[in-house]
Amino acid sequence: MAYLLQQLLTRSAALYPEKPAVWARKRTLTYRELDERSTQLAHLLQKRGLRKGDRVGIFFPKSLESVVCMFGVIKAGGVYVPLDPQAPAERVGYIIGNCGIRVLLTNKDRRSALAPEVIAALDYCVMTDGSGSNGSGNKIVPWAMLAEYPASPAPEVTLTETDLAYILYTSGSTGRPKGVMLSHQNALTFVEWCAEKFKMRAEDRVSNHAPLHFDLSVFDVYNAIEAGATVYLVTEDLALFPASLASFIEAQQITVWYSVPSALMLLLLHANLKAEKLPHLRTILFAGEVFPMKYLRQLAELLPGVELYNLYGPTETNVCTYYRVDRERLAAMEKLPIGIACENTEVFAVNDQDQVVTQAGGSGELYVRGPAVTYGYWADAEKTKKMVVPNRFQPNFNENMYRTGDLVTLGEDGNYYFQGRRDSQIKSRGYRIELGEIESALLSHPGVREAAAVAIPDDLIGNRIKAVVAAHDQQELRIADLQQFCATRIPKYMIPEQIEFCTSLPKTSTGKIDRVLLAQTNRN
Amino acid sequence: MAIEQTASVKDQIREFIQRDLASAKGVSSFSDTESLMESGVIDSLGIFRLVAFLEETFRVRIGDEEITHDNLQSVDSIEHMVLGKMKK
């Protein structure tokens, strides 16, 4: 039995050495190549001083080399940290500092975007794009250097399933992203559940639509490798173009698709999907945001032979509940359930009286326990203590559970239904966004006195973001300047597309910004 | 005359992208050749706002199957597609 993620690759590489493991932009890597190159990278990292548990950043657009890097780092006993290649340099620099990344796997373009002091603090960069040469100095390692290291066997490392495999950074409410620590066991709990639930086979052709810093990609990459299947990386030249994406699904004979619902809605509305063109597609998984019923019904009708699953779960647990779409119920269904707990995971709602909800109709905050639950946030004991809490419903042994912050209702049908958030976290295009992080970015502008970010519900992308700002001197502040300022601190999908000025934000009787009123103003 | 017309189509495209798409992403400038998707200037909804603008302003029809990376990746490639359609 595999207890480390890299063992999935070792096993499949022995069974299917010449089969393509990864596809990107019409190039492929066979299992043998993926296994050998990642082993060479692992040796390189180790020779240059990487020790168990050291963090290694992966910072370049999705490509075949991305998957080599993921496996290379964990084979060396390290922990990889996928960094959003589109994020502002300041934010990436913060993450590099926050989790103490000393080695960066990157390319010329992305490396040059970083601040000089961030680059100076790194031990070295491995250039995955063919840039750099042996003469570039000690701090630049060209990809071609891999050839100097043994392709087999992988270096010996003493790891257990409880060691960390990767850290995924998500939006943080206090203005800085936070790093969710995931162990091999966390990931494998999910991967093994998927392998069985979705009957993954070596013949499968799995799409990877999500960016690699997004936890949806854990399924795509590791479940494909586990099954000896092929993962097809959807790069930017495809991701945004529905018709091209539909042709890609058809031409590559994708069998299992996983993405956020908004990507599926774009396909529905602009790609002229036809079941007869997609005879190989057997399963569609979606997660990350609520799928509007109207579009889900259309999708179910359009692709009658395809199994549809709604997967739910925060990065801290990966997927923890699932619902298999029942086409017979779909017409009468008002709201799509998030479903029931995945095997080897337990979920329950805790109500305001701190009791576990057992009766249908009861509501509360959803808690998760089991081997999928994160240890917490990197270098943030305070935040960890708030969200990953001792299980007070079970007195016999020490274990933690994760408070999702999501409010749910237990339905008559035994399924859980998502109702909303306890805090100001929102979803837009499946991205998890803390409104507090946007406000904090706005407030760090010297001309801003008060700021509030508000979510405006949107059928296609979940939410749009608007900000209301009170300036010190309104004459001096321009909307475009503020948006430009935000772009240096937060990712583009978080920047408010609308900014309104006011002399002072509305307050509640206790002096807090009145968010209820702000949200209502929006609806009118 | 032909040269003038080319410049004005390109200017209008550039101006729309700057005003309606790039600004809201905090981007103040971009070149005519750079990939607007890779740099995040245009996102999934932006693409369809851009297409609606092109259809309306230049009185051309852009089919779903023509909304591709090759046609829309940069100001230059958008201009090339629009001019090709206007000639027809």
Q: What distance separates the N and C termini of chain B?
A: 18 Å
Mean pLDDT of chain B: 89
Q: Say how many strands of chain A there are.
A: 27
Largest interface chains and counts: A-B, 32 and 25 residues
Mass-distribution shape of chain B = globular
* CATH second-level architecture of chain B: Orthogonal Bundle
Number of domains of chain B: 1
Strand content of chain A: 25-35%
Task: Explain this structure.
The complex is a heterodimer of chains A (524) and B (88). Chain A has 17 helices and 27 strands. Chain A has 524 residues and is of the alpha/beta class. Among the domains of chain A are: 235 residues, Rossmann fold (3-Layer(aba) Sandwich), CATH 3.40.50.12780; 99 residues, ANL, C-terminal domain (GMP Synthetase, Chain A, domain 3, 2-Layer Sandwich), CATH 3.30.300. In chain A, the strands form 7 sheets. A 5-stranded parallel sheet of chain A has the order 4-3-5-6-7. A 5-stranded mixed sheet of chain A has the order 12-13-14-15-16, with helices on both faces. In chain A, strand 12, helix 11 and strand 13 form a beta-alpha-beta unit. In chain A, helix 1 crosses helix 2, helix 1 runs parallel beside helix 8 and helix 10 crosses helix 11. Chain A is globular. The mean pLDDT of chain A is 95. By secondary structure, chain B is mostly helical. Chain B has one domain: Non-ribosomal Peptide Synthetase Peptidyl Carrier Protein, Chain A, CATH 1.10.1200.10. Chain B is globular. At the A-B interface, helix 9, helix 10, helix 11 and helix 16 of A face helix 2 of B.
